[in-house]
């Protein structure tokens, strides 16, 4: 029999056998256990489809109206071991009536999550919530996954909610300017914009990975990441191409060129690899500057990993400038 500390022999074709693995004091380590064990553990965390109703197809407006369990700020002092039981779990219909209970704090959920694999391998088949009814109910093992999902959704709702409030406040603050029309348009879009679906770049020049949830951080004073900056630059290019009746690619032949974050990164890596094959872009921009086609070059920079600035190189005036 396998001892708690002995290494596992990985067998990708092995079929999971409960009596072989459960309750034998085997240490749960996803790096050493066979795939059949870790896959079975993942199955135990699967939320029933009828309860996994946090649909990404909802619009932002619908998503904010979607009811989710409240998050508890209660500090839980009980050990995670008493939250797991070998008793049979309640029936699904009985569990549904308990889903509106407050979700344990995010910190405690992390502790439960860390203990889950070992408890499951030791033979736990249900979860106890000692906060209610003296812990008499036996909840299904997937309840932990449900709590984690509810926590994530609450955080995403809060992100969108803050953005919508900011948008509303800005509309009231700027009601004497031309901006309210733009704000009103943005507000109307929330009725049709899905709250967390993939966003595809407008042009092949960009390769960022983002979802519509990223857009929420444009509504306010949130911290922006690389994807946000590249999305803004892409939109800037698109707007400029419409004003000049050209395409975003054609902008590269105009007197003013706007580059994304990959440009300063390419400059940073230039000394490491001077091959023409990997530096076609830099060479092309250099040629545009040399023959006088490109008068100005704009690109973003992240200073000390804390602050975004815009940089402009004026090739005609032989100067450069930057600012927030």
Automatic annotation (TrEMBL):
Q: Name one GO molecular function term.
A: cysteine-type peptidase activity
Keyword Hydrolase recorded:
yes
Q: What are the alphabetically sorted keywords of the record?
A: Hydrolase, Protease
Q: Which InterPro entries match?
A: Papain-like_cys_pep_sf (IPR038765), Peptidase_C48_C (IPR003653)
User: What are the GO BP annotations of this UniProt entry?
Assistant: proteolysis
One Pfam family linked to the record:
Peptidase_C48
Q: Does the keyword Hydrolase apply?
A: yes
The molecule here is called: Ubiquitin-like protease family profile domain-containing protein
| Organism from which the protein derives | Agrocybe pediades
The taxonomy runs: Eukaryota, Fungi, Dikarya, Basidiomycota, Agaricomycotina
């Amino acid at each position: 029999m396998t001892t708690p500390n002995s290494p596992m022999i990985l067998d990708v074709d092995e079929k999971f056998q409960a009596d072989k693995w459960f309750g034998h004091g085997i240490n749960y380590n996803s790096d050493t256990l066979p795939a059949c064990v870790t896959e079975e553990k993942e199955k135990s965390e699967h939320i029933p489809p009828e309860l996994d109703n946090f649909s990404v197809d909802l619009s932002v407006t619908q998503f904010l109206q979607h009811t989710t369990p409240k998050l508890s700020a209660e500090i839980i002092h009980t050990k995670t071991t008493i939250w797991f039981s070998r008793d049979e779990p309640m029936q699904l219909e009985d569990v549904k009536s308990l889903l509106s209970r407050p979700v344990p704090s995010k910190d405690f959920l992390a502790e439960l999550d860390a203990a889950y694999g070992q408890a499951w391998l030791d033979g736990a088949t249900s979860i106890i919530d000692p906060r209610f009814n003296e812990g008499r109910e036996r909840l299904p093992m997937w309840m932990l996954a449900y709590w984690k999902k509810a926590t994530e959704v609450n955080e995403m709702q809060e992100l969108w909610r803050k953005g919508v409030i900011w948008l509303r406040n800005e509309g009231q603050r700027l009601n004497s300017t031309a901006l309210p029309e733009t704000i009103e348009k943005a507000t109307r879009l929330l009725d049709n914009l899905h709250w967390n679906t993939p966003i595809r770049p407008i042009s092949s020049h960009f390769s960022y990975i983002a979802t519509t949830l990223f857009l929420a951080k444009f509504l306010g004073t949130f911290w922006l990441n690389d994807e946000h900056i590249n999305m803004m630059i892409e939109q800037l290019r698109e707007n400029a191409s419409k004003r000049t009746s050209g395409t975003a690619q054609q902008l590269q032949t105009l007197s003013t060129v706007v580059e994304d974050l990959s440009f300063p990164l390419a400059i940073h890596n230039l000394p490491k690899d001077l091959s023409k094959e990997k530096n076609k872009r830099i060479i092309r921009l250099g040629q545009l500057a040399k023959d006088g086609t490109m008068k100005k070059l704009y690109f973003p920079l992240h200073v000390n990993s804390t602050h975004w600035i815009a940089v402009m190189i004026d090739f005609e005036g032989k100067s450069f400038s930057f600012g927030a």
